[in-house]
Amino acid sequence: MTRLRMGFLAAAGVFTAVAAFAADTPEVLGTFGEWTAFAEGSDAAKLCYAASAPIKKEGKYTSRGDTAVLVTHNLNDGSFDVVSIVAGYDFQPNEDVLAQVDSKKYTMFSKGDRAWNAENKDDKTMVGDMKRGNNLLVVGNSTRGTRTTDTYSLSGFTKAYEAISKACPRDKAAKKK
C-alpha cells in the first residue's frame, strides 16, 4: 500500500531559506560529515530527522530551489526511517524518481517537489544501504522536462542516524491505531 508521507520539514543549517520550510527552529543534535541531525517538538509530538544537501547538482536549469535528502522519525505517528527527497522544483507528475545508493536502485514516487519510497520495507532497506554506502544519487525530471542528477555524500550519515534514533527512540512513539 502506498504511503503518502507529507508533514516533515526540510532542515535548518542545510538550507539558506529555513523559514520557508520550518515553522519552529529545530534543535541541532549535531553535524556529522555531510549530514546534520535535528529534533523538533517534545514528548509524543517529537520529530527527528537527518538531512543533507547535495555535494553535486547537475542539469540544464537556470534557477532551482533548495534540495535535500532527509530521513525522519516521527514519534507522533510512529513512523521511522522515512526517506524523502526535496527536489527544489516540482517533479513531472506520474513519473518515478530514481534514487541509487552506490549500485542499489530504488524507484520513488513523487508529489510536487517531494519524493518517497512507496513501502516501509523499502525505507528500512534504503536506510541500511545508506549506512553502508558512499553516495546517494537522485535522478528526476521537472514539470518543465529538465532532468536533474543530484549526488549526496553519505559521509556522516550513520552518526546522524544514530543521533536522531537516540533523540526519537521507537519505544517513545505513539501507538498506531
Notes on the protein architecture:
- By secondary structure, this protein is of the alpha+beta class.
- The chain is built from three helices and eleven strands; from the N terminus they run H-E-E-E-E-E-E-E-E-E-H-E-E-H.
- Strand 5 and strand 6 form a beta hairpin.
SSE topology:
Elements: H1 18-21, E1 27-32, E2 35-40, E3 47-52, E4 56-58, E5 68-74, E6 79-86, E7 97-101, E8 104-111, E9 114-116, H2 120-132, E10 135-141, E11 147-153, H3 157-167
Antiparallel strand pairs: 1-2, 2-3, 3-5, 4-11, 5-6, 6-9, 7-8, 7-10, 8-9, 10-11
Tally of strands: 11
Strand order of the largest sheet: 1-2-3-5-6-9-8-7-10-11-4
Helical fraction = 10-25%
| CATH domain class | Mainly Beta
Topology as H/E string?
Answer: HEEEEEEEEEHEEH
Number of domains: 1
- Main sheet: strands, sense, barrel: 11 strands, antiparallel
Overall structural class, as computed from helix and strand content, comes to: alpha+beta
Number of helical segments? Answer: 3
Q: What's the CATH topology label?
A: Immunoglobulin-like
In short:
The chain has 177 residues and is of the alpha+beta class. The protein is built from three helices and eleven strands. Strands 1-2-3-5-6-9-8-7-10-11-4 form an eleven-stranded antiparallel sheet, covered by helices on one side.
Main attributes?
single chain, 177 residues, alpha+beta, Immunoglobulin-like, 11-stranded antiparallel sheet, 16% helix, globular, disordered N terminus
